[in-house]
Design goal:
Layout lengths: L2 E2 L9 E7 L2 E6 L4 E12 L2 E12 L4 E8 L15 E6 L6 E8 L2 E6 L10 E10 L1
Antiparallel strand pairs: 1-2, 2-4, 3-6, 4-5, 5-10, 6-9, 7-8, 7-10, 8-9
Length: about 130
């Protein structure tokens, strides 16, 4: 439930926290089975901080540049072409590899590996955190 704080012009007149459920898909191909996907968020003014986890049980034919993640609690404001939102994460079950999260389009973020290879695979479990402007 949002909490409104007296104020106005400073942009800090809004506070909300809650849960959200990420939805994931492969860049190309199909992830056959998805496990637990859950997240928490805090929004203060137009700044949204998210963290959560997504699990790929069976990757199927998933491949490509990354794992697409949608269902964010708020779309990213991508009106400024010089603004790029990045977050960090880790695959915590199989490889232990670090990954980065970035706003690809307002309603879809991308989980990508630093090596440039597809981060998904059977049993992959990602934990992540990021802040962006709504």
């Amino acid at each position: 439930m949002p909490i409104y704080i007296a104020g106005g012009s400073d942009g800090l007149d809004f506070y909300e926290e809650g849960t959200w459920t990420p939805t994931i898909a492969a860049w190309t191909g199909t992830i056959t089975t998805v496990g637990t996907c859950a997240g928490l968020y805090t929004r203060i003014g137009d700044q949204v901080h998210i963290h959560g986890e997504v699990n790929i049980t069976t990757n199927g034919t998933g491949s490509g540049n990354g794992v697409k993640m949608s269902g964010m609690p708020f779309n990213a404001d991508m009106s400024d072409p010089d603004m790029w939102y990045e977050g960090v994460g880790r695959e915590n079950s199989i490889t232990g590899d670090m990954v980065h999260i970035h706003a690809w389009i307002p309603a879809t973020f991308l989980i990508a590996s630093y090596s440039g290879s597809y981060p998904g695979g059977d049993g992959r479990r990602f934990f992540f955190s990021m802040t962006y402007k709504a």
